[in-house]
Structure formats: C-alpha cells, structure tokens
Design brief:
The longest helix is centred in the N-terminal third of the chain and has 17 residues. The protein has a domain of about 260 residues: Antithrombin, subunit I, domain 2 (Antithrombin, Chain I, domain 2, 2-Layer Sandwich), CATH 3.30.497.10. The chain is α+β, with helices and mostly antiparallel strands. The chain contains 10 helices and 18 strands.
Length: about 400
C-alpha cells in the first residue's frame, strides 16, 4: 500500500483565456483526459462520481504488459508521452507517496487531518504462468504483489477474496466490486483501490447548516441541507462560471468547485473543459468568501467501462484482438469495472474507489470584504493533486438529496 498526506479535491470546468500558465504534469494530463472522457459518457444529467486516477493506474499496469498495436493505441489514447519505458503513472504515484503533511495535528476526534491510501494487487489463477519480468515490474513500480486464487473451480470464493481486499483498502466504503459471474473463468485480474479522507482547514459550523433551495437541471427547486461558512478560499470569476477551491487541513489539499452561471449550464461547461485547463486550476488566488455548499453523498452502482473506453479510442483494448504478451501469451481483457464513493459534510471529505481489469485467456481472436458564493445548482467536482494537477476523483452533483 502506498500512503501519502497529499490530496487535492478540485471541482473544475471551462477554459479561461486570462488563466496564468501553469505547468501540468504529463501524468496529470493523462489522468484528467481519461476522467473527462469517461465522465461525459457517465453523467447524462445525473449525479456521478468516478476515480480517473484509479482507472488510469489500473490501465497503466495493463499497458506495461501490452505489446504491438495495443501498446501504441493505449499510449496514444491515454496520453503517454513515450511508447517505450514506463507509464507516467508510476512516477506520479511515487511522488504522491512522498509528500508529507506539514504542521497538521489530529482533530478533536483523534482522526488524521488527511489521508490517501493507494493499493494494487495482481490476482491470478492458480497454475497460470505470468512472465516473471512483468511481475517484477509491477511489484517494483506499482507496489502490486501477486495473490493466487481459483477462478476456475471456485469463482465465488475468488470474488469474495477480491471484494474483501477492496473493502480492506477502502475502509469498507467499497464492499463489492466484482461478482462470481464477473470472475468465472478469468486468468488474471489487475485491481486498484484508492481511499482518501481529509477535514476542512476551517470546518463548517453544524449549527449553520440549514435547508436552502437547490435548483435542479429542469428548473425545479428543492430544499437541501446546506452548509454555510465564511473563509479564505481560492476564487476566480470567469466568463460563464465561478471557480472556488476550499482548502483542507494539514497539506496541499483543496476542494475545487466550478459553478456555471446558468443553472442549466452544466453540460455546456462539461463539454468545454479540457485536461490541461483542469490541471491549471490547481492553484487560484485567495479571497474571503461566504460559502453555501450542500452536503452530499454519492455511491452509484458499479460502472462497466468497456464501451466508454472503446468510445475514447481504445478499440483494441477489450476482446481477442489485444496483445498483452508482456504479461502472458493469449490474454485479452473481458471487463473493466469501477465503483466509487464520495461524502462531503461539515467536517470534510471522504472518498474511495476501486477498479478491476479482468483478463481471460483468448479462446478466439480584504478583511471585511467578502464574496458570497451560493452553490445552489448542478456543479462538477474532482479530487486533484495541486502539485501536478492530476484529478484523483471526478464527478458532478445534479441533485444532492
């Protein structure tokens, strides 16, 4: 398991001509590009949350064993700068694991101020021969050990083993990622789990939480529990939207919101954002603001990512045409699954996600001045590392109930 005290939660949208140029890490561009592509296909005007970092991390592990046109296509679609060498995600994960919190003290409840856990594992069929060079590489660069299970004779137990590992590495926030039907007949599963929890630098007073109107996409208004606090936060007013980033305690962590001016403008902003802009919003100037933020918790069903990944250009990734000879001969991906969770309340933010890539063997081919920001209609959100601009989680809230 890799653990760090650096996380950043960002809520981002739109491009801005006046935005100062910020160098965006190549790995962050890869993560953000993948996340935006998947979010646009998942959202459809509804609540959504996913972890582009977790998906990209698992795909990077698969890419390490890809060969030929499969490797070239993955590098192109995922934005890897080089076809040879290691994926940039391996270096990003090492950077995340290095960054400590500075001056952070445990909260009144004794909880750590911020936490990021990233874990990977290779689950393989007993007796299935994986190239030793691949196992050495993913253990060294991704911290991913090998665990043997019996997908063939006992898929029920194999699924329970994987789900127990996921639950253990997400603080039980993700308790079922795969079913016995998902894993039956598998030869190999690459799994990734990510968990983070952070408290606000300045907590919202629970006594200030009260029902306030939230305007839905179709124009209806509902009353939802809304937190209120005056604080120094990142703020930028741009054409068509407002960006606000709320800092977390104990490290370089922010919760960034991109709120369209038009309550019905979420899809437009979502369409306009790009990976580079997403990364550049990791640092914006501070202003004293009165924030009204709805509490919310999202826990959507497991996402089946086969078709979304194909639509992004990974046409040879899934099915008998793929080449993963660097892992073992004859492998192909049958499914890419992810399940995610996020909760935002007066204390801070908690989020988790897990991804599984399932391989089969081929059988066929100012002190008194403040700005009021009322987040009272749909908005996008992401979890982002401000050092690189990489989004660890990405989603949107259209109905916080």
């Amino acid at each position: 398991m890799q653990r760090t005290s650096l996380i950043c939660v960002l809520f981002l949208l739109g491009a801005q001509a006046l935005l100062a140029e910020v160098a965006v890490d190549p790995a962050a561009l890869s993560v953000n590009q993948l996340g935006l592509g998947l979010l646009r296909q998942q959202s459809a005007g509804k609540n959504a949350v996913l972890s582009p970092y977790s998906v990209d991390y698992a795909l990077a592990m698969a890419w390490e064993g890809a060969r030929g046109k499969t490797r070239e296509q993955m590098a192109h679609v995922l934005g890897y700068p080089k076809v040879d060498g290691s994926a940039p995600l391996s270096s990003l994960s090492k950077e995340l694991a290095k960054v400590p919190s500075e001056g952070a003290e445990p909260g009144p409840d004794g909880c750590e101020p911020l936490r990021l856990d990233i874990a990977c594992r290779v689950f393989a069929q007993e007796g299935f021969a994986i190239r030793p060079s691949y196992l050495d590489l993913v253990k060294k660069d991704y911290g991913s050990p090998l665990e043997l299970v019996d997908f063939a004779a006992n898929p029920d137990d194999a699924a329970r083993t994987i789900n127990a590992w996921v639950a253990d590495n997400t603080q039980n926030r993700i308790d079922k990622l795969v079913s016995k039907d998902d894993v039956a007949g598998a030869s190999l599963i690459l799994a990734n789990a990510i968990y983070f929890k952070a408290r606000w630098a300045k907590a919202f007073e629970k006594g200030s939480t009260e029902p306030r109107p939230f305007h839905l996409v179709k124009g209806e208004s509902i009353d939802v529990p809304t937190m209120t606090e005056r604080a120094d936060v990142g703020y930028r007013k741009a054409k068509g939207y407002t960006a606000v980033s709320l800092p977390y305690d104990g490290g370089n962590l922010t919760f960034l919101i991109l709120l369209p001016d038009d309550p019905a403008g979420l899809l437009k902003l979502e369409a306009e954002i790009d990976a580079k802009t997403l990364g550049e919003f990791s640092r914006i100037e501070t202003r004293s603001c009165m924030i009204h933020l709805p509490k919310f918790k999202l826990e959507p069903p497991t996402l089946q990512l086969n078709d979304p990944l194909k639509k992004l250009g990974l046409t040879t990734l899934i099915g008998g045409g793929a080449d993963f000879d660097g892992i073992a001969p004859g492998l192909f991906i049958s499914q890419v699954l992810q399940k995610a969770f996020i909760s935002v309340d007066e204390n801070g933010t908690e989020a988790a996600a897990a991804t599984a890539i399932i391989f089969l063997r081929a059988v066929a081919p100012g002190d008194h001045d403040f700005t009021e920001v009322n987040i009272d209609h749909p908005f996008l959100f992401a979890v982002q590392d401000t050092g690189t601009g990489a989004c660890l989680f990405l989603g949107q809230v259209t109905d916080p109930r």
